[in-house]
Amino acid sequence: MILLTILFLSLNQIGVSSTDTGSGFPKDMNLYVTFPPILQHHESLALGHLRPLGWQRRAEAPIIEDSLNIDPERFYNLFVRGNRSVVIRGIVSPMDVLWTDTYLSKHYGHLNVTAAKRKQRLVDTLVMTPLKTFLQQYRQDDLYMNTIIPDEMKLETPFPSVINCGTIRSRLIEPILWISAGDTASLLQAHAQHTLHCVLDGRKDFIIYDLANHYPREFDLVKQANGDLFSRIDVDLVNAYKYKYLHEAPWYWTTLREGDCLFVPAYKFHQIRAHGRTLALTIDFAPTNIREEFLGTDCEKNPPVYVPLSQAPFLWRYEHAVRHLSKRTITSEDVRSYLLLLFGANEELHREIFRDFYLQVTDELDKKSVALPTGTDVWKQLNKDEPHEEFMTRDHLKNLSADSLQLLADILQKSARIHEHHKHEL
């Protein structure tokens, strides 16, 4: 999720059949769940042992909220640069009335989407299936959907005004649409990107840990190549003896309903639980250096009430059921911009993050057996004259000549236009 992969995932391009595992019975669609939980102490057991995450310590307080009229500059300065979570109520249009299962099936049922097991795992298998098939099964079977929103759906999807101009708009990575039914739990996780999480229908409960350490060993972490972190803790049945740290770690909470959004800063540990039929939109955007001032010459004093997501300049788009770079014509300066996004707020870009990006953008070319330089060869071309093999500095990238970036630009150009040419033309 390079940038937005949420798990160690393998993508099988197969449909979800009626024989897939599932109870066959409708899921519990109850939205009236007590949260934060009322803790129960037992003298013979550690607090919250074999209970869901959140039962091991009382919540500190609700996550801070701000006005739905918050402007992008205030949002950026107080929360993005301040590395603080914030809830904004009613900032997007609810989709519960328009995007019913019947409507989605009729208008978008032919589109391929990706789905996974309802309870996230460290190693998951995503299956590709028509949206219509998913909608026929997700209320009974153990599935939830997480897919980059296809272009066809973006006209009806709201683009939150708080990220629709200035510094943030230029750093948008990709939008993910989530659909689930029943009680659906995420892993305890921290992403390398900032995320604006908006609920379009249903309810989601969030746990946010306020930790100074980005890599707490006590969370038993797995790190992905793109920088995302996931905990091995079973969020439904926590071993409170093994993970004693949860009795000490302060956490904050919120519940989002239709129209509400939550900003989760990069590397902020959080866990999510959805209830009932839930539709949600997450928009990831690259972190900035905290010294970087807000640039908002394109911001309007009175922005439109509704702007469709189709107007957002995302790095990635979803085409032919695969993630692609959004641009069709890619220059050496585009390459420089892409790589700067990979830096995030850091002054160094590590080879493993570049490698993850390169594998994603060349995946289809590789499957078509198109002859390409290896990621190592491209990295050496970009990182020549740097004393370090494992990373390049921000200043080095900014000073690279256009000729040094052209090799990667040519490769990305082939990837962007892969469906416009035959193999021998690439």
UniProtKB/TrEMBL annotation:
It comes from Adineta ricciae (Rotifer). Pfam families: Cupin_8. It comes from the Eukaryota. PROSITE patterns: JMJC (PS51184). Residues 138-302 form the JmjC domain. InterPro entries: Cupin_8, JmjC_dom. Keywords: Signal. The keyword Signal applies. Residues 1-18 form the signal peptide. SUPFAM superfamilies: Clavaminate synthase-like. This is JmjC domain-containing protein.
